């Protein structure tokens, strides 16, 4: 069975976030946690700065859009534009009036019958900063608890639970 043709599968949401945003935020959170826990020999303030920088880069990468394009789409457009084969071709030998366009006036244009183009459904909800912050803190707490349990916290809990 095929999905309906008017549904954009890339816009499927999980807790209000697209899967692309979830992947970016999870990677940024893992990198931040790795900086905080894995670099124990570094000064604490430097680890906090690295955590904040990785969190900021992850948030910008996940949520920033310019003219409807995400950051990676924008960078891909720049790369494709710079790598195209016709870049700077015949620039010096163009005619003076070649780039000019003659737009017809309103009287000269016949009244065209416009047909309606079907529009795809658009979700106008975006997560608020408080919602993003609360989820980021919750995920960080869960990851820290998991790491603590893996690194001996489970044994400590077992020793505390046994006398009860």
Which terms would index this structure?
mainly alpha, 164 residues, single chain
Describe it for me?
The chain has 164 residues and is mainly alpha-helical. It has a domain at 10-85. It has 4 helices and 4 strands. The protein has helices at 19-38, 44-63, 71-83, 129-161; strands spanning 13-14, 17-18, 65-66, 69-70. The longest helix has 33 residues, at 129-161.
Number of strands: 4
- Report the sheet with the most strands, covering strand number, pairing sense and barrel closure: 2 strands, antiparallel
- The fraction of residues in strands falls at under 5%
Low-pLDDT stretches: none
Distance between the termini: 56 Å
DSSP helical segment count: 4
Write the H/E string, N to C: EEHHEEHH
Looking at the structure, what is the overall shape? elongated
